[in-house]
Amino acid sequence: MMANNEKYPYIPCGFHILVELLDAEIKTESGIILATGDEAKREQGGINTATVLAFGPTCYKGFSGCNGPDDWGVAIGDVITFDKYLGTYPNYDKYPRLATIPDSGVKTVKRGANHD
CA–CA separation, 25 vs 86, rounded Å? Predict the structure, then answer.
């Protein structure tokens, strides 16, 4: 299940999800930004935030009551969180913010436009 835009030449295989990492910001209560990017990710307790770009063909199949990502409540465009060391970060030269994670690694979902 690939996103409509073919912006990325990579397609996840099997039960993996292709994501684009988002910058994290650490702010004080008054709104002062203390850190962004990689520094903030290290400081936020081992959790990465990313946007879902594509699903492998067997994502969420075999989970109890699931036949695919829609049954699990995750859609392309959703913002998810997952453990920092869970994903594979291939460090593609043109796409350094891409990662792949297993479907079972999604911790939370912030519903995107696909769920409105």
Answer: 21
